[in-house]
Amino acid sequence: MSWRDSQVFLRRPRLLLFIGGVSFLFFTLHSLKGRYSNQDNVSYLPSFLSDHLDPNVEYYGPPFGGEPILRNDASAVHCLWAEVDQKSTRQIREKDAPAFPLLSAWLKPEAARYGPALEKIPPALMDQFSLGGRVRFQEFFFDQAYLGGKAMQSVWSIDDVNHFRRQVQERRAAFTYNNEPIYEALDRWATIAVKGKHGLVIGSETPWLEAMLLEYGASHVSTLEFGEIQTTHPQLTTYTPQQFTLMFLQGKIPPFDFAFSYSSLEHDGLGRYGDVLNPLGDLQSMARMLSVVKPGGFMFLGVPCCEDALYWNAHRVYGPVRYSDMFAGWRTLGSAPRDAMEGARGGEGDWKFQPVWALQNRMGCIDGTQGLDIRSLGDAFV
């Protein structure tokens, strides 16, 4: 490069900033790779700056801050496992951990995209979005950018929440889809997973799901949503993805007892709501929950079922392939309804049919009592 070329190059601050950022990220990841990753890429990084971590020990907790919970034999958490419904889980292949380092899930971009949503999948990303051609593809386009702006309902008042709670008391649908799978899941698992506990809702335009969880006994519910929401309800807290990620990584948000996501993660990484394109967006969000939910804690997930398909850019539909990837690191307890994956519901996936899956976090647990029905333990878990 000539002297003149070098001066032109140096007058491009955005380019310099980009190159500097990439160089720093590469250096950081390279320096951490050997020290904090085990052979299965499932270690957690409690702090970039700590000099007191044993490189041979796996850690559970906020990857970049907060007090770690060790997973070694001396101090790891002994978890009690809820009973598995073999009928509803037999098509799901359990995986011990995600196929990517969990650190990469926390490096997932949270900034709003620039420009309008793309009507076509970029050719360079087609293979990843289609899982190497294993998922059926169909166009179904939207551009409803919320990320970086206000949510559809940007203020949640006490009256709003009480309105939905009255609907729950009457067991009426509170969302645009059939909510019976949610009621069924909470009827079966709320006593051990929700009652008296602090939970996280991932994706919620109105406080209908938060009201359901409060009505089923949750002590407090935090909500993570693309758009900014203000709430006056004393049992609710709201975060945007950027706020949540920063605060959790700084150790300002402790791990939750449970998390619940319904009709949300299937959109992650498709650009519909203003997010950056990311073929692994939904899988990385689920992998983050392995840090966000306590060891042995619960995750409830409702996404369109029951074939592997992509409706660009509206949503994904989940079948045995994508479900197994989504549930990596989790213990699959069962679905509501129990026959969600049966042949009668097969064929082309129905995006309005979203069974609720109950999962239990394996990460941070060194063992457990297999097959124990925690509901039999009564007040110890409520």
Which residues sit in consecutive blocks of at least 5 with pLDDT less than 50?
A: 1-75, 368-382
N- and C-termini, Cα separation: 68 Å
Query: How would you sum up the global shape?
Result: globular
Rg over C-alpha atoms, rounded to the nearest angstrom: 21 Å
Could you give the order of the helices and strands?
A: HHEEEHHHEEHHEHEEEHEHEEEHEEE
Tell me the fraction of residues in β-strands, as a range. Answer: 15-25%
Major beta sheet, strand line-up: 9-7-6-10-11-15-14
How would you characterize this protein structure?
This protein is α/β, with parallel strands linked by helices and 382 residues long. Helices cover 29% and strands 21% of the residues. It has helices at residues 3-10, 13-36, 86-89, 102-106, 123-129, 158-169, 180-193, 208-215, 241-249, 281-292, 320-326, and strands spanning 59-60, 69-70, 77-80, 136-140, 150-156, 198-202, 220-224, 228-231, 236-239, 256-262, 293-302, 309-313, 315-317, 330-336, 356-361, 365-369. Strands 9-7-6-10-11-15-14 form a seven-stranded mixed beta sheet. α10 links the parallel β10 and β11 (293-302). α6 crosses α8 (208-215). It is globular, with a radius of gyration of 21 Å. It starts with a helix and ends in a 13-residue tail after the last strand. Mean pLDDT is 76; it is low at 1-75 and 368-382.
